[in-house]
Amino acid sequence: MSLHPDVRLNLARSNLLLIDDNEQALEVLASIFRGFGVHRQVKCGSAADAQGVLRSREIDLIVCDTVMPDMDGYSFVRWLRREGPDEARFAPVIMLTGHAARSTIESSRDCGANFIVSKPFTPEVLLQRIYWVAKDERSMVRSDTYVGPDRRFRNTGPPLGVKGRRKDDLSAHIGTAKDPNMDQDEIDNLLKPQRAAL
User: Fold this and answer.
1) Do 65 and 17 meet the contact criterion of CB atoms below 8 Å apart?
2) Residue 187 lies in a domain
């Protein structure tokens, strides 16, 4: 499942916030993103530090670990979506987890994250998720119990240029027409009421 060769993604002007309490993991993430061309990075070892950053800086993408002491990734994203600064409230969030159990995926979805990536991951997988986030057209939803991207997107299929994982994902490819296009008179004749033969 790789990106289409024609896909181009320029991340050079992106402002990235990386959040992980594991210093080595944070450095590996930063290195991967430098390889993607992202040089404006802010690294935080806790969700509390990240809250301070969001109050003072513009951020385009947040990559956050799920498990951290004091405030975990789920609580951080819930705070971001409900109480975070207005300019950051709907910033896309990719969550990282070492345990991809169903409950972890559901918790990430329900807190308002855009996507979740299971560790260990390759840079290619991470880049695919960033591409999905960049091309995601889901609207943001606000309700009493949920704030975040609309969770109803399964039947739209993956973004153009990305091969889907499910056998029933819709194809974004539109083939060549099998029949010639009709002219307007032919279309009008099809839509004109006809007298039924008795």
Assistant:
1) no
2) no
pLDDT in tens, 129-145: 898 888 887 888 888 88
Q: Residue 119 in contact with residue 138, Cβ under 8 Å? A: no
Question: Residue 34: what are its φ and ψ, rounded to 5°?
Answer: -60, -40
pTM of the model as a whole: 0.74
Tell me how many domains the chain contains: 1
Q: Is 104 helix (H, G, I), strand (E, B) or coil?
A: helix
**How many angstroms separate the CA atoms of 70 and 67, rounded?**
10
Nearest 5°: the CA angle 144, 147, 149 is 140
- The model's pLDDT over 157-196, given as tens digits with 9 standing for 90+, comes to 566 666 666 665 555 555 666 677 666 667 666 666 556 5
Here the CATH number for the domain that contains residue 35 is 3.40.50.2300
